[in-house]
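Entry, Tuesday afternoon. Goal for today is a structural model of the target with flavin-adenine dinucleotide bound, before we commit to ordering more compound. Inputs were pasted exactly as handed over by J.K., no edits. I checked the ligand SMILES twice against the vendor sheet because last time a stereocentre got dropped in transcription.
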Amino acid sequence: MSQVLDSEHQLIYDTALKLAREKLAGYVEIMESQNVFPADIWRELAESGYLGVGVDETFGGTGGDYLAAALVGQAISRISPAIALSVGAHVNLCMHNIFRNGSLALKQQYLPGLASGTLVGGMALTEPNAGSDAMSIRTRAEPIKGGYLLTGAKTFITNGPIADVLVVYAVSDPKMGRHGLTAFVIETAWPGFQVAKSLDKLGMRGSPTGELVFDHMEVPDGHVLGSPNSGVQVIMSGLDLERAYYSANAIGIIEEMLDQSLDYARQREQFGHPIAQFELIQEKLADMATQLDAARLFTYHVLSLAQTGQRVSRLAASALLFAAEAANRATNHALQIHGGYGFTKDFAIERFFRDAKLLDIGAGTNEIRRILIARELLGDR
Ligand SMILES: Cc1cc2nc3c(=O)[nH]c(=O)nc-3n(C[C@H](O)[C@H](O)[C@H](O)COP(=O)(O)OP(=O)(O)OC[C@H]3O[C@@H](n4cnc5c(N)ncnc54)[C@H](O)[C@@H]3O)c2cc1C
């Protein structure tokens, strides 16, 4: 890896990559073939302390900043983008959100379990009729004495089928439109929760994705994340960080595609020469390396800005847009460099090719990212 990280962050990345290679790679095949998430993966990650990165030790975390957490995701993504996706939903979408916005009581109640991996976390925003148009969610949080009654359906929720704790967004005051949304921290063991369906997917297989139903679930007042009707602020700050964090997952994919392509191009001979000597192959390698360097510099910069509390909406959307498209180009180039062999399941390339596609869709699609960037440029938030 080019030296763009300080020695502390470089060590975090190197150590996480070693763990991913030694302890996680063995689970990839069963995740692919059976679309399951073996619980032992969580145990390995918990033992390493990677499920608590970015949360203070006071709350059971292992400390570190957003960049550290993203680098762990980047390293894991080189072995399995699907495991990295589930780790991101747990760490970034759930745990960091509670750490940033939760009351002291919520932090004390949930962060130690999430950071130690005894609890699995996720975040539920998307609904069957509210994807890109997230502000049109219909899940209702009806105020009752001492709390709310949560009723509605969510879909595409990463870790939904295995989660213990979810950050859920719902309409608490329908008259206030987008300013009538509230974020809640709920437990899936509470009455009224049901996993309606586990989704079978093109890629990211093994990372559980579910359709969830909330049927008159009683949620105490103390489980509001942030304050009542401030859900839109919680969503938007979370989305910015999610995009910056998720860019690092894309970088992991590009790194792995470049390394595997370099190895293969040096070994594979045609016309009496290693294909690495052909300039049309070199062009693809050079493009992958250039976009990788650019994606790293951009993403790490945005994560550092976010750490200082700066608003990074446009930059985070741009970083993810760039990294996601670069990752998809990289998987395409890598597959082409591997020729027919890249099209078979004997090589990991086809798995990365399928997994990378989610980067164009999750955390707001490429279209929505472009719209957000343009609106910010035009001063129309
Ligand atoms: C594997 C996976 C994991 C996910 N994990 C989570 C999770 O943990 N939590 C969660 O809440 N959500 C999650 N999602 C949901 C994800 O965020 C949504 O899929 C995404 O926001 C897009 O919504 P949609 O799928 O409903 O597509 P739609 O919004 O229906 O979009 C369909 C197409 O129309 C385009 N489009 C929409 N509006 C516009 C517009 N105004 N201008 C131009 N083009 C437009 C989109 O870009 C897209 O190409 C996950 C999704 C997947 C597939």
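Residues 89, 122-126, 131-132, 156-158, 201, 204, 209, 358, 361-362, 364-365, 367-368, 371 surround flavin-adenine dinucleotide (CB under 6 Å).
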